[in-house]
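Subject: design request, 407 residues
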């Protein structure tokens, strides 16, 4: 009995598969799971009907030339995008030194010449929320925040950081200081309520904070010989509706401020900025490896453990990923949660803004405005830990005995 004729659709599929396999009957047979003789028979019918392939032949020189042209154009676009970022940094902002590739200052890697040096202090600045307004009447009077208070708190942070370091080493025998900028410098307009209640819009806030952070770094330079500034952007200072995964830093006022600061101190060899284009800043102090990240990719938590659960899970995932790419780290540094946690594996920063209406509504634990400060020793790693409380002292504490024992 004669076989039924093969449909045109099946013949076209056979021809396309044959073309994609580079004209190999054997490969076509394997891919379609039918005998080679059937493929050969269909090819004769295809030739007789004058069918043409609807896919590109990988061995066709004209198609190869087309692919080369397409890939070349994509490479040019990618290179142009990279050059655009370079133009922003080196032409528009006029940076003469690289800030996106880590060029660690020598003093962060080599032990100080004096054996009794306590090490390198790190002051961690994040979640400044510049321009946010916290109304004390809406948080039961436990906090107040605006531009004036923000400037005072940043000055308190500088003064108290120096004072605490002087307590550890009265001679200030430090090779330098690390000023880590962890993002969310601005309140931003990411929510309608912030747009409606911020004291000023993003552009004026950039100018105000640029001046304040410049003064902060200058204050560090008065007491420390060198300053190293690793930077990552947060999620609040963005100019997009949602946080981007691609090109995240270049949609952020945080990143823009960091680049302006790097330009401000570009001619000063005592100041080194590290502003990577990724969300992670990876650097070492002596032999201790730090990974700085804002922390907004860690989500979840509950009323009992707060953000600690998702942060520890996220840290585990990051360590697994980084071990695969040969970028293992010892300590993860994050902000975002406005919660102080200090362990060998994870450092979570407080905030400059302090307890706000959102934290009050969500029944979060009260956290006073504070930033983390610690010292990294060349042999012992992280040693002294001194959280810096940046709020004004509201009233004198009543006199009490310095120690008491219940009777």
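Subject: RE: design request

Done. Sequence follows.
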């Amino acid at each position: 009995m004669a076989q039924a004729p093969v449909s045109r659709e099946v013949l076209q599929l056979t021809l396309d598969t044959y073309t994609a396999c580079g004209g190999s009957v054997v490969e076509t047979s394997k891919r379609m799971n039918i005998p080679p003789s059937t493929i050969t028979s269909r090819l004769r019918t295809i030739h007789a009907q004058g069918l043409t392939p609807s896919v590109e032949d990988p061995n066709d020189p004209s198609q190869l030339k087309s692919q080369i042209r397409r890939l070349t154009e994509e490479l040019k676009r990618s290179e142009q995008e990279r050059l655009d970022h370079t133009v922003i940094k080196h032409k528009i902002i006029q940076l003469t030194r690289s800030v996106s590739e880590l060029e660690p200052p020598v003093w962060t890697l080599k032990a100080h010449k004096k054996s009794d040096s306590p090490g390198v202090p790190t002051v961690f600045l994040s979640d400044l929320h510049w321009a946010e307004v916290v109304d004390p009447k809406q948080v039961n009077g436990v906090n107040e925040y605006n531009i004036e208070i923000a400037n005072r708190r940043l000055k308190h942070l500088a003064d108290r950081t120096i004072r605490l370091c002087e307590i550890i080493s009265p001679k200030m025998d430090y090779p330098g200081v690390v000023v880590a900028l962890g993002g969310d410098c601005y309140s931003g307009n990411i929510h309608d309520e912030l747009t409606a209640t911020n004291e000023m819009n993003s552009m004026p806030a950039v100018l105000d904070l640029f001046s304040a952070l410049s003064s902060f770094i200058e204050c560090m330079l008065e007491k420390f010989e060198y300053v190293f500034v690793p930077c990552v952007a947060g999620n609040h200072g963005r100019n997009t509706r949602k946080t981007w995964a691609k090109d995240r830093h270049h949609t952020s006022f945080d990143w823009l401020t960091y680049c302006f600061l790097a330009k401000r101190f570009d001619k000063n060899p005592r100041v080194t900025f590290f502003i990577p284009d990724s969300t992670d800043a990876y650097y070492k102090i002596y032999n201790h490896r730090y990974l700085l990240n804002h922390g907004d990719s860690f989500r979840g938590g509950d009323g009992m453990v707060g953000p600690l659960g998702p942060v520890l899970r996220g840290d585990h995932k990051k360590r697994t990923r980084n071990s695969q790419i040969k970028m293992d780290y010892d300590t993860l540094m994050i902000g975002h949660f406005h919660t102080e946690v200090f362990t060998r594996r994870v450092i979570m920063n407080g905030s400059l803004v302090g307890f706000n209406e959102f934290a009050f509504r969500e029944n979060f634990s009260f956290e006073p405005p504070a930033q983390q400060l610690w010292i990294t020793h060349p042999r012992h790693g992280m040693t002294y830990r001194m959280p810096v409380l940046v709020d004004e002292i509201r009233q004198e504490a009543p006199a009490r005995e310095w120690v008491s024992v219940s009777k």
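The chain has a mean pLDDT of 86.
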